[in-house]
TrEMBL record:
Record's keyword annotation contains Isomerase: no
SUPFAM superfamilies referenced in this protein's UniProt entry, alphabetically: EF-hand
Protein name per UniProt: EF-hand domain-containing protein
Organism: Streptomyces prunicolor
Pfam families per record: EF-hand_5, EF-hand_7
Domain EF-hand: 19-54, 82-105, 108-143, 151-177
Length: 194
């Protein structure tokens, strides 16, 4: 058994906070394309298809291949790491168990952030505008989502954009933070936007 899997089995007994559960519930629901209460490989294929509709993610492009690889790769990581009964289904507790492991693999989180950044940086100017952030949120959820003041909370230097380093730090906070005060928690929309 790999050391990561041993760590996971120990950590699965740790109960995630109510804040993390609430924050990630909307993401779980967005990933669960067929709404059956479980994540399955087909859900990640549907998620990759949704992201493939972004203007910069042209079919056959290098970016399209990266987006497809990252999103479908999440399924591979989830199924290999937390689907301990090997039934091809991941529930919310399984997702939270995987999120508990993310601080131990920061390079994977950063690589995902870079790919998502490139996909939503529609004009390729190296920064994410308010409108591009809105497209990120809408694409994740598969429908328009009211983001309120989320972007203003993310844009801590108030320059109207998120740079690649800012985005990567906020992305990591979204997936790993258990501190409601950290701005990255609203990266994918307001908490509870489901």
């Amino acid at each position: 058994m790999s050391s990561a899997l041993r760590v996971l089995r120990v950590r699965r007994h740790v109960v995630s906070s109510e804040f993390q559960r609430t924050k990630l519930q909307a993401m779980f629901e967005a990933f669960d394309a067929d709404g059956n209460g479980y994540l399955e490989e087909a859900d990640f294929v549907a998620l990759a298809d949704r992201w493939g509709r972004l203007p910069r993610v042209r079919e056959g492009s290098e970016l399209a291949a990266r987006v497809d690889g990252v999103l479908k790769g999440w399924w591979q990581h989830l199924s290999a790491t937390v689907d301990t009964d090997r039934d091809g289904r991941i529930d919310m507790d399984d997702l939270l168990a995987m999120v508990d492991l993310l601080p131990t693999i920061p390079e994977a989180v950063t690589a995902t952030a870079d790919t998502i950044f490139d996909a939503v940086d529609e004009n390729a100017d190296g920064r994410i505008s308010r409108g591009e952030h809105q497209r990120l949120v809408d694409t994740w959820h598969g429908r328009p989502v009211e983001t309120g003041g989320s972007f203003d909370r993310l844009d801590q230097d108030a320059d109207g954009y998120l740079s690649r380093p800012e985005f990567a730090a906020l992305w990591t906070q979204f997936w790993t933070s258990d501190d409601p005060a950290e701005p990255g928690n609203v990266m994918c929309g307001p908490i509870g936007a489901g």
